[in-house]
Amino acid sequence: MTGYAAQLTEYIRQGVIPPYNYSYPSRSTYRPLDGSWTVEEAWKRDLTLYQVPELNLYLHVPFCRYKCGFCNLYTVISEDTDVYTAYMNALCTQLRDHADIIRARRLRTVYLGGGTPSLLSLRHFEQLFSTLDEVYPNWRSTVEEVAIEATPDSIVNEPATLEGLLQLGLTRANIGIQSLVPKEIREAGRGQAGEQVIRRAIEIAHDKGLPDLSTDLIMGFAGQTDETWRHSVDELARLDPATISTYFLTVRPDAWFSKTGAYQYAQSPNLYERYDYARQVFTDHGYVQEGSVRYKKLGRGGYKQKVLTFHGVPLLGLGVGARSYTGVLDYMVGSVKPSMSEVADYIAEAEAHVLRPVTGFVLDDEEIIRKRLVLDTFDLDLAELDRFGYQDKAHLFEPILDAAEETGLLRRLGRRAQLTPEGFKYRDILSWMFFSDTVVQLDRDYYERLHEQNKRARKHMGTPVGISGIRTARAAS
């Protein structure tokens, strides 16, 4: 058995659970950019990489009614409709300012993320879609998915908003559930989204004819047992959403659970048994596995923006805290730390047309290859990477792919690599092995710094230090 194969085998034996890799490099690796980078220059250089340029559009709405304990996303607590209106005006201004970038590509998906975008009123969405009509008039002909994130209570409280969004072109809504066990829902900091509210939200989505209702469950909450996990899985399968995701709980140092130090969560090999149970139940109910965390009803479910981004289609992120992924630079504009004052700064800078990349990660050919290997081994034609010098750099990657094949995680079909069912299960262990030393060090530095800040804060408050942090395959080695 080769060295990499032995590593993979040992990580699997230990039950190592790295964080889910939905981007590479992660936000933790972003550092301040020098003044030479502009949005226009990044996207101009990106165009040179693609024969058939395509684009995913992500629009960020940071507002929430409450903060989930495990969330480390760019969110702020606000229900101020005047702030919502000012923010939407700024977002539409930023969208117009990117018209040339959008028009130079074929628009494939539109995603309204957050935060809780469904807190906005229907007039805000009408303004946004009217601006998109102005920027890219035929978007409804090219776009395969129009999606929004929502909470169960926002759907129950404002069902007319969902109905209006469907008329505007909505095809998918992600309704965060996390659990169907009341105690676990409260543990997650989601007391307003009780089990009955969740069931009612799903019922409304079905009744309104939403094409793709996307839901999720989380493995590893404090107090969760195999029995309560099975209950949530069984009940959700019976509720029949088009898409279901199952995540291992990750408590990052910038989430509330970690900052308090009071939350201890399970992270052990038996969580993979919960993964196995969910996979069996969902496949028995007619779902197919789209990725390591996601199941869909064939032909009507799934998460197209994520799949396309993993395949290398660039993503333009607009709104405060949004990230953009180009072929040469991953970046954020404006604020990087969520607060209402930073939201106000974003609004002012967007209206003044002065937003520019402030933090990010510059990609060279090797990092582009690594990005595809980290994200896209579900089904990856390695020949697509030859234009980035894969053949010359193969010695960096082929031994890991060979080890994955040797351990049964991956199959080779000519130059196409595809994960096996076992590969789907342990995908994140394999993905971390493709991280560059640079990315690993930047990630480690960022989170070690946050850990130290949390320790000092808890010591000052007199709060005992709990278990938190990130466990990665590399950290376990």
TrEMBL record:
InterPro entries: Aldolase_TIM, Coproporphyrinogen-III_oxidase, Elp3/MiaA/NifB-like_rSAM, rSAM, rSAM_sf. SMART domains: Elp3. One of its GO terms (cellular component) is cytoplasm. It comes from Streptomyces roseochromogenus subsp. oscitans DS 12.976. One of its GO terms (molecular function) is catalytic activity. This is Heme chaperone HemW. It holds the Pfam family Radical_SAM. One of its GO terms (biological process) is porphyrin-containing compound biosynthetic process. The keyword RNA-binding does not apply. The keyword Mitochondrion does not apply. Residues 49-288 form the Radical SAM core domain. Keywords: Iron, Iron-sulfur, Metal-binding, S-adenosyl-L-methionine.
